Amino acid sequence: PQAVEELEQKGVHVVQSVDEVPCGKVIVRSHGITRTDHDALVEKGVRIVDATCPFVNKAQEHARTLSREGYAVIVVGDANHPEVKSIVSYIEPGVPILTSLADIRFAAGIRKAGIVAQTTQSFENLMQFVSASLKRFPEVRVFNTICHATILRQKESTAVAGKADVMIVLGGYNSANTRRLAEICKEINPRTHHIETDAELTADLVGEASCVGVTAGASTPQWIIDDLVAKIRQMWRGEKIDVTYYK
């Protein structure tokens, strides 16, 4: 939210639909947009600055290729997330699309299935879908489209959570990857708190911790992380507080 607010102050306005786009220039978010929206922007004649994450582009391409080669397509992720919607939009019409383990268990008449994943999914969740698919379909083809940075961030964050007395996960409440980080860290450290801004940091949140762990979602700007770490150190100045964080 803070990053979006900063962009608004610089004259970059967020729109929710192609209909809201005036003439000029459009920046496509990292989650990507649906093929229908992309075609509509081209038809409008606006200049498109495509900031779609390369890993999302790969997931779109793999989904399209699988569907053209006759595979039912399994998309591992949140079906309502903009990124998943963009991936699904590149699947050829008429091809079965499965987005849950229940879809896989009750699928009928499918001989071969291909799997792609939302880029911010955990590897463990992807493997659950792979395992279920191998039991259900004679042929399964898998593309690991999880972002390497996401995998590393999750791994390093759990390491920090294991060392800290209290773990702070910083990032938007509407951010899927930040929420997932908080879930993973909470499994390691029950005293994990997901906050959106440093204004939510209170003495009660940290309590008598001697080590505070900090991590942040993929889209959280570095300056926001730095501000939080500085506030932690300032609030507990003079006390033995070790701030361990992954950035």
- Under CATH, the homologous superfamily of the largest domain reads 4-hydroxy-3-methylbut-2-enyl diphosphate reductase, catalytic domain
Number of domains: 3
Structural class: alpha/beta
Distance between the termini: 18 Å
Q: Low-confidence parts, pLDDT < 50 over ≥5 residues?
A: none
Mind telling me the C-alpha Rg? 21 Å
Number of strands: 10
Order of helices and strands: HEHEHEHEHEHEHEHEHEHE
Alpha plus pi helix count: 10
Sheet with the most strands, sense and barrel status: 4 strands, parallel
CATH topology of the largest domain: Cobalt-precorrin-4 Transmethylase, domain 1
Quick gist of this model?
By secondary structure, the chain is of the alpha/beta class.
Note down, in words, how this protein is organized.
The model has no long low-confidence stretch (mean pLDDT 89). The radius of gyration is 21 Å and the shape is flat. The chain has helices at 2-9, 35-44, 54-68, 82-88, 101-105, 123-136, 148-163, 176-188, 203-206, 222-235, and strands at 25-28, 47-50, 72-76, 97-98, 112-117, 139-142, 166-170, 192-195, 211-216, 242-245. The strands form 3 sheets. Strands 4-3-5-6 form a 4-stranded parallel beta sheet, sandwiched between helices. A 4-stranded parallel beta sheet has the order 8-7-9-10, with helices on both faces. The chain starts with a helix and ends with a strand. The chain has 247 residues and is α/β, with parallel strands linked by helices. Helix 3 runs parallel beside helix 4 and helix 7 runs parallel beside helix 8. It has 10 helices and 10 strands. The chain folds into 3 domains: 16-50, no CATH class; 54-142, 4-hydroxy-3-methylbut-2-enyl diphosphate reductase, catalytic domain (Cobalt-precorrin-4 Transmethylase, domain 1, 3-Layer(aba) Sandwich), CATH 3.40.1010; 148-245, Cobalt-precorrin-4 Transmethylase, domain 1, CATH 3.40.1010.20.
